[in-house]
Design a protein that fits this description.
Layout (H helix, E strand, L loop, with lengths): L1 H22 L6 H32 L6 E2 L6 E6 L2 E6 L4 E7 L1 E2 L6 E6 L2 E6 L4 E7 L1 E2 L6 E7 L4 E7 L4 E7 L1 E2 L7 E13 L4 E13 L12 E6 L4 E5 L6 E4 L5 E7 L1 E5 L3 E8 L2 E8 L4 E2 L9
Length: about 300
Amino acid sequence: MKKILIILFVAFFVFIVVMITKSFPFNNDKADRENIKEQLRKRKLEEKKVADREAADREVVNDKTFDFQSEYYNRYAAVSKNNMWGFIDKSGGLVVPAIYDDVTYFNEGIAAVKLDEKWGYVNTLGEIIAEPVYDSVRNFREGIAPVYNDGFWNKGWGFIDKTGELIIRHTFEDVSYFKGNYAIATVGKKELSFDDHYRETYLVYESIMVLINRKGVPVSKPYQEISLYREPMGLYQVMAKKSDEVGLIDTLGNIVLPIEFDNIISYNGDYAKVEVYLNGEKETVFVDNEANIIDVKDDIIKR
């Protein structure tokens, strides 16, 4: 009986040793062992890279010594170190590394950054949403931003959206920000002019303004000047070409108040208080939407 127990114990021990040995990869063939070693080497190398990056991040974030720090605007402040610019948040953490030649400020979660004489955009995570390829830019408003190229074939102002996609081509000499669905754009126009004295025809270049929609399509006729008159009413003051007379148009380009006045003081939708020259002298009068002079009380017109 004692011999049987000893034999069973030895058999059990051998079985355990065999099972443990099989569970380790070191008893596999040479190719398997080399493969395991390579995997371990790559894992250690990747762990070292991660540790190095984390250490570098901690070193930058904890470095509070900047050459300059702006005031906080929309929760972020621009900082400069060694003439390079980045951004910190209100906790002092560096959200955009100080690697840029210049920066603007964050608006709508996006800031413009300059690198190697070109401008692009980053978000609050420091991610580039538009590569630095533009010669001039402005900040985002209402989801889009004006960008300028000074190329030979691709010159002028256009607009990009928050994905960095160009939604309005570089075709304008200048643009305003969009107010709702409309913006003011300046375009160049070439015309032939005849000089009576020298009896010569020559080319004249002038700038005119148009109202555009979010596709960059003009919705008004060209005018010498256009300016936003009253945003809630969607009205724009326009000045006729080669004239100092002004009037009002709507966002469809329709004339609301004829372009016949020296100045529009106020307008309420039905009547306007304007300045106009009568018999060689400037006078203040009230007119209706057809420019007819009417007799109303002064307090009926509200600015």
